[in-house]
Amino acid sequence: MSQLSDYTSFRVGGPAQEIVNASNETEIIEAVQAADEAGKPILILGGGTNVLVSDEGFKGVVIHVSSAEVEAEVDACSGATLTIGAGEVWDSFVVTTIARGYAGLETLSGIPGTMGAAPIQNIGAYGHEVSEFITRVCTYDRKEKIVKTFTNAECDFTYRSSRFKLERDRYVILDVGFQLRIGEMTTPILYAELATSLGIEVGGKASVVATREATLKLREKKGMLLDPKDHDSWSAGSFFTNPIISAETAEKLPSDAPRWVQPDGRVKTSAAWLMEHAGVHKGDALSGARISTKHVLALTNTGSATAADIAALARQAQEKVHAIFGIMLEAEVNLVGISLQ
What we know:
The chain is 25% helix and 25% strand. With 341 residues, the chain is α+β, with helices and mostly antiparallel strands. The strands form six sheets. Strands 5, 6, 7, 10, 11 and 12 form a six-stranded antiparallel β-sheet that branches. A three-stranded parallel β-sheet has the order 1-4-2, with helices on one face. It starts with 15 loop residues before the first strand and ends in a 5-residue tail after the last strand.
């Protein structure tokens, strides 16, 4: 019986009762339909880079998606229109867009995982989110048993979320459509840390190639690039999302706490800042699990961790932040067979 630890970046997770490999849209739909008709639970797995699976494994059908078709149409006025299969490795796609002379995704370089997860999580980094570039998402609707396509507006994208995350058991991503600009320069760089790395002022522009290189260096410095040889990167990237809290709660935070006012009046603050100021430190360990020595938001497997160890370390961080600031951190990582509450 296959171990899900072989399919996840955490390298933890118990046995899979059944694994089906699906390399194209037809195989994905057939695998989902067969499992649904048999009344078996389904776990859709791509790169396994944003999931923590319990040590008991998954009692159902794991559908491992590897469809990686890429279709492109280029117009001098409208730019590049792309359709990408759900199994395409995200960063490989970013590399392809840059090599073809397209701009937009360079600040999203190095994010692990596959295309199917991108719209679900509305992945983002260094001032941009993937929802800025998606035109449509094609899915299989398990409830209505049909293929259904959503426009960008219908995806209900918000910070690290979408309708596909809110209704995770209903929609299976088949492919994603993008519209990208043709060009060698970025739009204005608004993220201060990235601008500094590029040697420009906030609001300045840089080459797409240089921006990708700077982004990768920043992610590597923070332990956010997967490296099989480096246990400090055996993680799922940022374990918690940045909390979005009421203005009243934000007022109670120390004056130096990061604050980003949202369109609805609420305030986003930094999960990493809260953790560090609540007594969570880089390198803190619990059994085989450890807070990364590079970035406090990354929980890692030192080589001997169980899923239970990682979950316990996450709960410990949650409790410390809640005790000091009254804010409960929420996991960005998908939890399978595990609860942090």
